TrEMBL record:
The keyword Coiled coil applies. PANTHER family: SARCALUMENIN, TRANSMEMBRANE GTPASE FZO. This is Dynamin family protein. InterPro entries: Dynamin_N (IPR045063), P-loop_NTPase (IPR027417), TRAFAC_Dynamin-like_GTPase (IPR051943).
Length: 646
């Protein structure tokens, strides 16, 4: 990228995130300082801060072979090294999916996973937790040449028996027949299944992560790329070659792995038409060049069914050369600037919005509750001060009457606590049914049964039918939870209304649990699974290993979503009664304070001035408490967060 500009954008984004974290940490300390915290909300805030700290902006690059994807990555991010840092040359270069990031704990390295691990029933996520299973190559960040040499290992290949390649999903009879290689005894395959690269590049240190995928073949045989890694990226950069346009394999990748992943989500896709320099014709000149580019963009947009403005024409080769040689004219001719601006501005803006919505969802309710409770405390303190100032202290009957009223309120408080405990018990019984509906045991029972049925399957068709059965049973499980969720929501709203109507508690709209988001995520996974198992690649190979790996990936994702639903339901059921608990606690504090003051006044007239001074000091403290909270809310709003309370 025009790295200076993009670095500034990333730095600004990091600073924005740091300011938000600072404001949230201040809010957490405020809750502790004034006794308004509880274990569940503390955990929510700590988890939110942990997520913000580890947040990454992930860009996934997807393309068929020979589209210039790695060259584009070099031009965008690593041109300042003065070298073609990542291996990029005509033909197949990037042989395995590659992740680039900065691991502050682990330092600079390349980790490579053996291709034979595809035969194991172990996910990439699990293998990433076992660094001893990976080949480790240290990187010398002070030597671009050493790094360049180390990166060449990414292109390593080896020859294996055809049967081995077939088991790995890297050879098929149909593909071999099309290429005239049906009788080959040995097949050339990549050495590595996956690569992890960590080094302290300024952009990576600011939180950028890059996923480089090596073509349709890898996406077709590594379900985790399609079902986990691509969907987790903020943006997918999909490359075409200007000299070929949209080929059959480009279109299959687009339909099966890019468009399906991004449709229905907030994820954005940038389509890059690379190698526009290949369209230059000395005979037609500049006019013919522009016409050829525009014609290819229009044709590609029609085939992909997207707006022409969503396609960025570039020459990664010219851009890299221009940046290395500091040639502004060539850089302008490469047309990289438009793509850079899109990535630098729009993507970070979208990520900010996503994070802001997540923060408001997780702690917006707490902030609104805190402000409401402080306002109630302030109003009560003013009311008490005015009450004390108006008391006729020569009239013992009046003071006695006020004491009797406060004792009645104390008795009412005891009834309130008893009523609350009863309501809470009813709610917890109902909430437990909701939480248990997502329980691991229920999910495991469905998974185990369908897995056994798949193991008995003699055909790929039978395996696919069992997979559909799995989808249907998980849908049914979630639907049962929908009904329980609606009942639980009605109950908690009724409890809040009861305490408002009967005891005059301030109305704080209860945070309501919803499983709509989990339903949507599961349906997206099921749709991806359907598309994957019906894809030409899967049908062509007809290999149980592909289906089993897909099954394993889907199960891992579905389990994760249902576990998240279970955990979120448990957290919600623990937290949703907290505002009432806080109001009851505050109610008791007010009653005890007023009773103590009235007793002192009743015993001695000399205590009046002392009581007024104490109440004025209390008001001063509540004002300070509110000012601190308002300052923190203002900090959060300055950074883009919007809460309901004004």
């Amino acid at each position: 990228m025009r790295n200076l500009e993009f670095k500034e954008q990333m730095r600004e984004y990091s600073q924005w995130r740091s300011k938000l974290m600072q404001a949230i940490e201040m809010y957490q300390q405020w809750r502790l300082r004034y006794g308004m915290h509880d274990a569940e909300s503390d955990n929510t805030i700590l988890n939110l801060l942990s997520g913000l700290k580890s947040d990454r902006i992930t860009l996934a690059f997807a393309a068929e072979f020979s589209r210039g994807k790695t060259e584009l990555i070099n031009a965008l991010f690593f041109a300042e090294t003065g070298l073609r840092l990542l291996p990029s040359a005509p033909g197949r270069t990037t042989m395995s999916p590659t992740e680039l990031f900065w691991d502050e704990e682990g330092g600079s390295y390349i980790r490579l996973l053996n291709i034979e691990t595809r035969l194991e029933d172990v996910s990439l996520i699990e293998l990433k937790q076992e660094p001893q299973r990976w080949k480790h190559i240290p990187l010398d960040c002070n030597s671009p040449t050493q790094m360049q040499e180390a990166f060449k290992e990414l292109t390593a290949k080896k020859s294996v028996d055809r049967e081995v390649a077939e088991k790995l999903g890297l050879w098929s009879k149909r593909e071999a027949a099309e290429q005239g290689n049906l009788n080959l005894a040995k097949v050339e395959i990549p050495c590595w299944r996956h690569a992890l690269i960590s080094f302290p590049h300024p952009l990576l240190k600011e939180g950028l992560a890059i996923l480089d995928t090596p073509g349709l073949n890898a996406l077709g045989t590594e379900p985790e790329l399609t079902l986990s890694m691509l969907p987790s990226a903020q943006t997918i950069v999909f490359l075409l070659a200007a000299d070929t346009g949209v080929t059959k394999s480009d279109l299959e990748m687009w339909r099966s792995h890019v468009f399906k992943v991004s449709s229905g989500s907030k994820q954005s896709v940038a389509v890059v038409m690379n190698k526009i320099d290949a369209m230059w014709d000395d005979l037609t000149g500049e006019k013919g060049y522009e016409s050829a580019i525009h014609s290819q963009i229009k044709a590609s947009a029609d085939i992909l069914r997207i707006d022409e403005k969503a396609i960025f024409p570039v020459s990664a080769k010219q851009a890299l050369l221009a940046k290395v040689k500091h040639d502004p004219e060539l850089l302008e001719r490469s047309r990289l600037a438009t793509l850079e601006n899109y990535l630098a501005n729009d993507i970070l803006k979208e990520r900010r919005t996503i994070l802001m919505n997540a923060i408001v969802r997780d702690i917006g309710f707490m902030v609104n509750e805190s402000l409401s409770l402080v306002d109630v405390s302030y109003s009560n303190a003013i009311s008490q001060l005015e009450e004390v100032k108006k008391i006729d202290f020569e009239n013992k009957d009046m003071t006695g009457k006020l004491l009797a009223e406060m004792r009645d309120r104390q008795n009412q408080y005891m009834a309130t606590v008893e009523n609350f405990q009863t309501s809470r018990q009813v709610f917890l019984t109902q909430a437990k049914m909701l939480v248990d509906s997502f329980g691991k045991e229920r999910v495991d029972e469905i998974v185990k049964r369908t897995r056994e049925d798949m193991a008995k399957s003699l055909t790929t068709y039978s395996m696919k039918q069992n997979m559909r059965k799995l989808f249907d049973e998980l849908r049914d499980l979630l639907q049962d939870s929908v009904d329980l969720t609606n009942e639980t929501r009605r109950l908690i709203k009724a409890i809040h209304k009861k305490f408002k109507d009967e005891y005059g508690f301030v109305e704080i709209e209860p945070q309501l649990f919803s499983i709509a988001a989990y339903q949507l995520e599961l349906e997206q996974i099921f749709a991806e699974g359907e598309a994957f198992r019906a894809s030409a690649k899967t049908t062509m190979t007809e290999q149980s290993i592909v289906i089993n790996k897909l099954y394993g990936t889907l199960i891992a994702k579905a389990r994760h979503i249902l576990k998240q639903a279970h955990d979120d339901a448990a957290t919600w059921s623990s937290n949703v009664m907290t505002p009432l608990m806080h109001q009851i606690k505050d109610y008791k504090k007010q009653i005890d304070g007023r009773l103590l003051m009235l007793r002192k006044i009743n015993e001695s007239k000399g205590n009046v001035a002392e009581s007024i001074t104490a109440l004025e000091e209390q008001l001063k403290q509540i004002r300070k408490q509110r000012e601190e909270l308002v300052f923190m809310i203002k900090m959060m709003r300055t950074e883009g967060l919007q809460f309901d309370n004004k």
